[in-house]
């Protein structure tokens, strides 16, 4: 089921304008090929507070960020949030189009989000830490 359709807890999320624009274009391009993923991503974009890139609060998950998070009942994981073409689970790079990737975008350390997984079971994800050091150095 889509993330947006089954939320019990939808925290405020914040996106950098550049990420929001690129992700909106991705959702539009994806609409015909994968409507469910496009809808999931669009729902996240619709509820986001969009700020200028230089106004994004430190510790906010954005594209390219390294995120340490926990899923209920599992050991914490660390991943880099990437666009679909860069995804490689073996290298810890997770696509923003996956349910977990879409859930992470725009959250900050300490925030959590609930959704229903593909298996129909409720899930809770909590962001533990966000590292955007490499992104800041690249600017």
From TrEMBL:
<dbReference type="InterPro" id="IPR023459">
    <property type="entry name" value="Tscrpt_elong_fac_GreA/B_fam"/>
</dbReference>
<dbReference type="Pfam" id="PF01272">
    <property type="entry name" value="GreA_GreB"/>
</dbReference>
<dbReference type="GO" id="GO:0006354">
    <property type="term" value="P:DNA-templated transcription elongation"/>
</dbReference>
<protein>
    <submittedName>
        <fullName>Nucleoside diphosphate kinase regulator</fullName>
    </submittedName>
</protein>
<dbReference type="InterPro" id="IPR029462">
    <property type="entry name" value="Rnk_N"/>
</dbReference>
<keyword id="KW-0808">Transferase</keyword>
<feature type="domain" description="Transcription elongation factor GreA/GreB C-terminal">
    <location>
        <begin position="57"/>
        <end position="131"/>
    </location>
</feature>
<feature type="domain" description="Regulator of nucleoside diphosphate kinase N-terminal">
    <location>
        <begin position="11"/>
        <end position="51"/>
    </location>
</feature>
<dbReference type="GO" id="GO:0003677">
    <property type="term" value="F:DNA binding"/>
</dbReference>
<dbReference type="InterPro" id="IPR001437">
    <property type="entry name" value="Tscrpt_elong_fac_GreA/B_C"/>
</dbReference>
<dbReference type="GO" id="GO:0016301">
    <property type="term" value="F:kinase activity"/>
</dbReference>
<dbReference type="Pfam" id="PF14760">
    <property type="entry name" value="Rnk_N"/>
</dbReference>
<dbReference type="InterPro" id="IPR036953">
    <property type="entry name" value="GreA/GreB_C_sf"/>
</dbReference>
<dbReference type="GO" id="GO:0032784">
    <property type="term" value="P:regulation of DNA-templated transcription elongation"/>
</dbReference>
<keyword id="KW-0418">Kinase</keyword>
<dbReference type="GO" id="GO:0070063">
    <property type="term" value="F:RNA polymerase binding"/>
</dbReference>
């Amino acid at each position: 089921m889509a993330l947006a359709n089954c939320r019990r807890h939808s925290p405020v999320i914040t996106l950098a304008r550049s990420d929001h624009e690129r992700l909106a274009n991705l959702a539009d391009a994806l609409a015909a090929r994968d409507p469910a993923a496009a809808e999931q991503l669009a729902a996240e974009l619709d509820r986001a507070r969009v700020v200028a890139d230089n106004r994004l609060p430190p510790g906010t998950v954005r594209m390219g960020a390294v995120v340490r998070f926990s899923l209920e009942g599992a050991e914490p994981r660390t991943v880099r949030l990437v666009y679909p073409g860069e995804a490689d689970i073996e290298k810890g790079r997770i696509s923003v189009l996956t349910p977990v990737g879409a859930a992470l975008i725009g959250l900050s350390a300490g925030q959590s989000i609930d959704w229903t997984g593909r298996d129909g079971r409720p899930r809770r994800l909590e962001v533990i830490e966000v590292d955007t050091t490499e992104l800041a150095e690249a600017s």
